[in-house]
Fold each of these.
Amino acid sequence: MPFTANRQYKKAPRMFVAAKDMHYTTNDGRQVLDGTAGLWCVNAGHARPRIVEAIAKQAAELDYAPAFQMGHPKAFELANRLVDIAPEGLDHVLFTNSGSESVETALKVALAYHRVKGEGARTRLIGRERAYHGVNFGGISVGGIVTNRKMFGTLLSGVDHMPHTHNLAKNAFSRGLPEHGLDLADELERIVTLHDASTIAAVIVEPVAGSTGVLIPPAGYLKRLREITKKHGILLIFDEVITGFGRLGTPFGADYFDVVPDIMVTAKGLTNGIIPMGAVMVSAEIHDAFMQGPEHVIEFFHGYTYSGNPVASAAALATLETYKEEGLLTRGAEMAKAWEDALHSLKGEPHVIDIRNIGLVGAIELEPIAGQPTKRAFSAFLKAYETGYLIRTTGDIIAMSPPLIISESQIGELVDGVRAALRSID
Ligand SMILES: Cc1ncc(COP(=O)(O)O)c(C=O)c1O
């Protein structure tokens, strides 16, 4: 099983057999409130009829069309709908099947872009400590989670990392953006000075680092990264696999922070988690740079058998319609205050050393048990599950990101479930 304690799991399996709106049903018939939107992806809640029907209809009408040298209307329609909601300046779309594939695609676009522009010496990629960019080789190379990297050899060469921005000593219990740490963006200048800008292709960051435990950027940090990258001709890639599609209360993290990257990486919420699909959005400048040479020649040697798959495209279109009709891409902003207040009511509960929040994302960091890191949070996860709440843990951090349809009373219920779990564990 992926990213699972396999032996522990097989001794006491946790199985879902059905889901509707905010709840899962377990194989023993219990209802579990979804505090994590599945894996940060079921933004509109579960089993939404419009999406389910669109999938069934598309499968019957056009099940598959070759992705190479052939097309079908829904993929183009979806690309256009994405451009409509994306930040101004991101005008072209490449489809993938996951966040990891979107990351690889973005990194390859960045390298090839510089090459077609005649700057083929720009081969370095800059990531960040504690970043999660999926599990493929490019992603773990620019990523910064030690356990995801250490077993897999030397990874990509020519990668450097900025420091992460998590600072418990100065920023614990911040509401929204932490106050301290803007200067950490200047570490990028140091890295540029070390390698020289002419060797650097791109910087990739998650606007809010999710999987590593919800690390929220200090105020002004992303704007400063944008200034530095622009100054040096380095592409800025936002990995919005989690922050995309309304998670922060805006359509994308780029909107929340008012910073437009050159490339935006998405997946997860694109199809509400139902069908694997990702999308990478790029600026017209990047797209146009590839459109040269003889017209019968492929411009970018990359793609997947299932890029823009018809059924996935239909699911994504129905998902975007659902988001639009229900105002879900901005509903997080309306709920953010209630979410923040509820989460911060956990201050003072056993083991809690930090609480942080932004949009409809929150984290509760626990003091680790000495010599047994991750055990305490895992116990809280198991306890919460037993009592009817799905939360996620990474290290000793509880992360929560409910479907964007959550009600105020369900927020209270979820947070009280976590409170009870914290009070019942060692
Ligand atoms: C920021 C980010 N990038 C990439 C990924 C990888 O996505 P996937 O698991 O769909 O490959 C994730 C998954 O959590 C993510 O959070």
Amino acid sequence: MGAVNKLRCPKCGYEPASKTIFQCPDCHSILEVRVEISHFTRADFDRMRESRDHSIWRWFDFFPVANRSSIVSLGEGNTPLIHAARLCEKIGIQNLYLKNDTVLPTGSLKDRSNSVGLSVAKELGFTTATVMSTGNAAASVAAYSAAAGIKSVVMVPAGTAPSKIIQARAYGATVVVIDGNFDYEVAKLYTAAVEEFGWYDCLSSNPYRDEGKKSYAYEMADQLDGRVPDWVIHPTAGGTGIYAMWKGYQEFLSLGWIERVPKLVAAQSEAAAPIVAAFKKGLADIEPIVARATVAESIQVGNPVSLGWRALAALRESGGTAAAVSDGEILEAQALIGRLAGIFAEPAAAVSVAVAKKLRDSGVIVADEVVVCNLTGHGLKQPDALNLAEEELVPIAPTLKALREQLAR
Ligand SMILES: Cc1ncc(COP(=O)(O)O)c(C=O)c1O
Ligand SMILES: [Zn+2]
């Protein structure tokens, strides 16, 4: 049984009496979940590693779910950690690993969050879950709600690609397209709707759901046999991944299951880089920006209001950094990952590899360090990022002669 302590405000220590208050009424911080883990021993680590359950739920005791019967799982987690030899050679990092989350059930890292989030929703008795999203979270919340038997309402900004809306619809969600800017107008309506209708909030403003990405830290410790990478690079939008990996690594460190934590790196698109800007200026919190359009659509977030400050603290405490890359660098990285590693990642996911290359080129990362790049979403999420030339689609005659001509072109 995951022994859940109370929710607690990380800034002022406020502890609500109810499990459904997510925000501190005094300082407005998102509350934090604490799970009781201090009694675990090395034998528990071995037991969890040996579990036949290969989803994130082999780490059940670290998640804020009281009973296993509440678990809502589609088999998420334990994604491959691939030593990409040809990519290593190209980028000049001998020990570059790709954490391939493109293979998660709905094709993105959001499944780590929503498996935990919807399990708690079931436990707390909610009947409708909601999220506002540029695509990946909508699909994931819709899928896990379907599995939980909970209704889902997802809000997307006007202009969201139909391919993304279709996936959420396929899982039975009610999709609401809203005319307005994502970070401001859509966010305002979303907050008002959660309050008005009492829906279960699946954004990073939900402390339970934020626990899910701790599984990155647990899985890496398992997959590298207790070794810790020198660097972990994460495509960053809301800051949940950086915050949760930090927390997961800290938990293992406090138990003596690992000896140190990796340097964490927030990787962003230059068009939407509020965390990079705040990190470089030495700020304790984010200055919200209006994000510009970028090929990395899934991480086009200008106001990571809930966990931005937590992510900044995690970057600094880990001795890590933050870096932004251009759309050109992102598309180049996407092509390299496909052609040299055999993984089709969406542009937002390729941002981690683009940043790895940038930090290697500038000498921040040294050739023999162990570097993990999280590949957080599948390329089929956004197929139009790859422009096919029209002539590539022109059919040839079904003859060897025509084939030879085509191959010679
Ligand atoms: C593909 C992809 N990568 C990365 C992220 C990063 O989110 P976070 O910074 O909250 O971990 C998101 C979600 O916003 C995403 O959809
Ligand atoms: Zn507070």
